[in-house]
Amino acid sequence: MPYVNVQITRDGVTREQKAQVVAEITATLVTVLGKRPEHIHIVIDEVDPDNWGFAGLLTPEYRARAAAKG
Question: How many distinct structural domains can be found in the chain?
C-alpha cells in the first residue's frame, strides 16, 4: 500500500491540477513499481504560504524579493 504525501503552498493550485498530480503519481507507481491503483493513497496537504519558509524567509517575502529582482 503506497502512501504519498505531497505538500504544496495553498495559493493558485486548482482542483484540476491536484487531480492531475494524483493521476500522474498513481500512474508512475503503477508503471515503475507494479502497484495496483486501488492500493495507492495520495494526500495533498496545502500549507498557508505564511507557514512555509526557505532560504531564511517566509514564502511571501521570498517571492516578493524574487519579483523585485526580476
Answer: 1
What lies within 8 Å, CB to CB, of 48 at 6+ separation is: 9, 10
Burial class (CB in 10 A: 0-12, 13-18, 19+), 38: exposed
pLDDT tens-place string over residues 7-45? 999 998 999 999 999 999 999 999 999 999 999 999 999
> Can you give the CATH number for the domain in which 42 is found?
3.30.429.10
Active site residues: 2
Q: Residue count of the chain, please give it.
A: 70
Report the phi/psi class of residue 12: left, alpha or beta, with left for phi > 0 and alpha for psi in -120 to 50.
Answer: left
Spatial contact of 46 and 8, defined as CB atoms under 8 Å apart: yes
Range of the domain at 13: 3-69
